[in-house]
Amino acid sequence: MKRREARELALQTLFQLDNSEISIEEAIGHVTEEQDAFLTQLVTGTIEHKEAIDASLVDKLENWSLSRLPKIERTVLRIAVYELTYTEETPAKVVINEALEICKIFGDEKSSRFVNGVLSKYTNQ
User: Fold this and answer.
1) pLDDT tens digit string along 103-117?
2) Using N-to-C axis directions, what is the helix angle for 24-31 and 37-48, rounded to 10°?
3) Which pairs from 77-81 meet CB under 8 Å and 24+ separation?
4) CA distance linking residue 64 with residue 53, whole number of Å
5) Which has the least CB within 10 A, 30, 62, 79, 97?
6) Can you tell me the distance from the alpha carbon of 45 to that of 14, in angstroms, rounded to the nearest whole number?
7) In sequence order, what are the residues at sequence separation of 6 or more whose Cβ sits closer than 8 angstroms to the Cβ of residue 124?
8) 20 falls in which pLDDT band (50, 70, 90)?
9) Cα(120)–Cα(52) distance, rounded to whole angstroms?
10) Helix (H/G/I), strand (E/B), else coil: 41
11) What sections of 22-123 are H helices per DSSP?
């Protein structure tokens, strides 16, 4: 499985987990039958570090509260911030570009501009 596909499936999985009381394994099973280590890492890592990620996002959001963000943008931001903060194998530019492309698929043009603005603050630290 390509990493872009894993990121898209991670978005779908986390979206499901946000709305239900199922296990991570069940949620991943609903979006794919394929086992993928990167997908599992993205989902479990984002969930495990959700409080720290959210706190970090609150500091970067201007005139927005995390709870007011549309679910797609919030979930894409969480995944990207997890990758930027807790993994080192993917360059920041690649993480941001992937997040923007996923926003264009699942959100709209405004979504990708907003996400780009927030994520760019992580590379300017």
Assistant:
1) 999 988 789 999 999
2) 140
3) 77/115, 77/118, 77/119, 78/14, 78/46, 78/50, 78/53, 78/54, 79/7, 79/10, 79/11, 79/14, 79/42, 79/46, 80/115, 80/119, 81/53, 81/56, 81/57, 81/119, 81/122
4) 16
5) 62
6) 11
7) none
8) confident
9) 18
10) helix
11) 24-31, 37-48, 50-60, 71-86, 92-106, 109-123
Q: Residue 21 and residue 43: Cα distance in Å, rounded? A: 15
Which amino acid would we find at residue 29?
G
- Reported for 102-111, long-range contacts at CB under 8 A and 24+ positions apart, including other chains, are 102/4, 102/7, 102/8, 102/11, 102/76, 103/72, 103/73, 103/76, 105/8, 106/8, 106/11, 106/72, 106/76, 107/70, 107/72, 107/73, 107/76, 111/70, 111/72, 111/73, 111/76
Take residue 7 and report the two structure tokens written for it: 């990121």
- The amino acid present at 45, given as its one-letter code, is G
pTM here?
A: 0.93
Task: Give residue 37's identity as a one-letter amino acid code.
Answer: A
- Copy the structure tokens of residue 117: 């603005």
The whole-angstrom separation of Cα 4 and Cα 2 is: 6
47/73 Cα distance (integer angstroms) = 16
